[in-house]
Design goal:
With about 100 residues, the chain is mainly alpha-helical. It has a domain at about 10-60. It is about 60% helix and about 5% strand. The chain has helices at about 1-20, 30-35, 40-55, 85-99; strands spanning about 20-25, 25. The chain has a two-stranded antiparallel sheet with strand order 1-2. It is elongated, with a radius of gyration of 26 Å.
Length: about 100
């Protein structure tokens, strides 16, 4: 009975680690969800392990798209400062510089 409880605790800890512990920025569960299936997941995992241990070199060339969007033009700044704002800031900086 103790072996069964130990085995269940180990399985629970392993499941928690898979779901919660990030490895290289993403959890194993997130990596599995991003893959196309078990075979793709296994292939990508093996490539990562091989690169991390130095068994293979990273692939060269164009990286695969992972759903990240790159805007065609740069986004406009969220803050818009007027000349009055800039003049007030300059006044404050000069005032503090004199102290």
């Amino acid at each position: 009975m103790a072996k069964l409880v130990g085995l269940l605790l180990f399985a629970g800890a392993l499941a928690a680690a898979v779901a919660l512990v990030p490895v290289g920025g993403r959890t194993v569960l997130e990596r599995y969800r991003a893959s196309r299936g078990p075979a793709d997941f296994a292939s990508r995992s093996w490539q990562e392990v091989a690169q991390a241990t130095g068994l293979s070199r990273p692939r060269t060339g164009k990286p695969a798209a992972h759903g990240q969007r790159h805007p065609a033009r740069k986004a406009e700044p969220a803050e818009r400062h007027t000349d009055a704002d800039r003049a007030e800031l300059e006044r404050i900086v000069e005032e503090h510089a004199r102290r």
